[in-house]
Every structure is written in C-alpha cells, then in structure tokens.
Amino acid sequence: MESTPRAAGAPAGACCPPIAAAALSERDAEIMAAMFKALADPVRLRLLSRVASHPSGEACVCDIADVGVSQPTVSHHLKKLREAGLLTSERRGTWVYYRPAPGILASLGAFLAGNEKVGRGEAPLTAQVS
Fold first, then answer.
1. What does the alpha-carbon distance between residue 117 and residue 27 come to, in Å, rounded to a whole number?
2. How many other β-carbons are positioned within 10 Å of the β-carbon of residue 89?
3. In the predicted model, what is the mean pLDDT of residues 80-106?
4. How far apart are alpha carbons 60 and 89 in whole angstroms?
5. How do residues 1-54 score in pLDDT, each as one tens digit?
6. Are the CB atoms for 81 and 47 separated by under 8 Å?
C-alpha cells in the first residue's frame, strides 16, 4: 500500500488547509495540483467514483475496468490516481484491490468548501460546466 501525500504536520488523511482559510504553501499547492491534475481526466474520475462508491469500500480492478478503454489504459489511470495519493492498492493473488486513500475524499471536500456559506447565489456545478 502507498501512503497519501499530505501537508507536514497535518493529521493522517488530511492534506491541506481549506482554500479560503489561508494562502497555500508551495508544498500544499503542489500536492493539490497533482490531485486535481489526476482528477481532470474523465476516465480517472469515473474510476475513482467506481472505487469510492463500491459497496464494500474497495474494488477489485476486475469490477471497475469497464470504462470504455483497454485494460492497460485502465491500469495506467489507476497508477496515476495512486501516485496522486487518491487511491491505495493491495495485491491479493492475481487481482489488485483499490480503495480511496484514508480521509482523502473528505479532505478534498473540505479543501474546496473552505469557509463558504451555502446559498450565496453561486451557479450549480452543472450550470458552470459547459
């Protein structure tokens, strides 16, 4: 298993302080940029979603590989998600099982939410993406 990158002194599973709390350090910005770069690919986003939403909390690569690309491409994308600290993996026999890195989904959510108040009149995400 690989460890999740995180800011020095941050609790396990945490990455960086909320974006609205303070200016990011160079190190925190590098960590977050790597995560968002990994998530900027639709196939990687789908793979992360399949792993995170799997009923058992982890998913065998055999259960999530049907995302419209070849198996070697799926392996490449899963490797990028692991390198970015978004997934951990464990080999069991011939299969590799993936799970979200501990606390990473909550950490990303908290980072983006910052100190925002709900209902400020921002357009919903679906309206912002064109």
1. 27
2. 17
3. 93
4. 9
5. 333 444 333 334 456 777 777 788 898 888 888 899 999 999 999 999 999 999
6. yes
Strand, helix or coil at 44? Answer: helix
Q: At what angle do helices 104-113 and 26-39 cross, to 10 degrees?
A: 110
Quote the tokens at residue 69.
Answer: 């690309």
Q: Of all residues in the chain, what percent carry a pLDDT higher than 90? A: 47
DSSP letters for 54-110 = -TTS-EEHHHH--SSS-HHHHHHHHHHHHHTTSEEEEEETTEEEEEEPTTHHHHHHH
Residue 116, SS3 per DSSP:
coil
- 37 vs 29: CA distance, rounded Å: 12
Query: What are the structure tokens assigned to 1, written together?
Result: 């298993």
If one counts every other C-beta atom within 10 angstroms of the C-beta of residue 92, the result is 8
